[in-house]
Design brief:
The complex is a heterodimer of chains A (116) and B (131).
Chain A (H helix, E strand, L loop, with lengths): L4 H33 L10 H19 L3 H16 L5 H25 L1
Helix pairs in contact in A: 1-2, 1-4, 2-3, 3-4
Chain B lengths: L9 E5 L3 H14 L3 E5 L2 H10 L4 E5 L7 H12 L6 E5 L4 H9 L4 E4 L7 H12 L1
Parallel strand pairs in B: 1-2, 1-3, 3-4, 4-5
Classes of the chains: A mainly alpha (116), B alpha/beta (131).
């Protein structure tokens, strides 16, 4: 028989933490949508609005990842990468993408709460 | 000396994000049975190091103010400590970035997102390799 007690305890603890923190993470995703929409259409990589959105995206990649929201983490990571590497970005398209991610995380959090 | 796997390890976890810190602490504490001390910034980490010693430091790369590499530089110069393994944790794991981080004197680089189930084993292996 394997001693999976600590592992099960960890899954429960991370699940509890996700339940407590998911509203704020979703609010941060919605803030990212607003930050993306504030980027001027003809922005440069070093524009403050773009750098700020990039920082917000980077933080969210880490948070979503540790809570097991891998798909959302990858999608936000893609936004971060585009803000960092592409000469021009479409703020409206990125904002829509972030909004889609926020909706998907909101649904995942709701489903996970119902399962508990 | 090779450390015993059952030896209680004391780990300093440095990350500006409270959620990431919490999950690392839960992982190392509950599964790895390690003693974890958290620091919310590079400066906070320096303060914690003035008050105690650690078997390893898990250090976020991108932090406001003193970032991971600058914190490592301060640790090495201020404490003259070149033996405590420092493990960078970062979402940027392109080979060139990993080489750059290892060149700063880190013992290893762990990618975010990490697996909280296997993180304690990874940390323990890095500590043992550095001993």
């Amino acid at each position: 028989m394997t001693d999976d007690g600590p592992e099960r305890e960890l899954i429960t603890a991370i699940g509890d933490l996700w339940q407590a923190r998911s509203p704020e993470v979703i609010a941060d995703l919605e803030a990212l949508v607003r930050a993306l929409l504030e980027i001027p259409e003809e922005s440069r990589k070093t524009d403050p609005e773009r750098l700020s959105a990039r920082r917000d995206a980077h933080r969210l990649v880490g948070v979503l990842g540790v809570f097991g929201q891998q798909e959302a983490a990858l999608a936000v990571s893609d936004i971060e990468h585009r803000l960092a590497s592409e000469a021009t970005v479409d703020p409206i398209m990125l904002g829509h993408e972030a909004h889609r991610i926020a909706s998907s995380v909101r649904k995942a959090a709701r489903d996970s709460q119902q399962r508990r | 000396m090779t450390a015993s796997r059952s030896e209680l390890r004391r780990i300093l976890v440095v990350d500006d994000d409270p959620d990431v810190r919490s999950v690392i602490s839960l992982s190392l504490g509950r599964v790895g049975k390690m003693e974890v001390v958290e620091a919310h910034s590079g400066h906070d980490a320096i303060e914690r190091l003035r008050r105690g010693t650690f078997d390893a430091i898990v250090l976020d790369v991108m932090m406001p103010g003193l970032d991971g590499p600058s914190t490592l530089e301060r640790i090495r110069s201020e404490f003259g400590d070149s033996t405590t393994p420092v493990i960078f944790i970062t979402a940027k794991v392109q080979p060139a970035e990993v080489r750059r981080l290892i060149a700063t004197g880190a013992a290893a680089v762990i990618a975010k997102p990490f697996d909280p189930m296997t993180l304690p084993d990874e940390v323990r292996t890095i500590i043992e390799r550095a001993a």
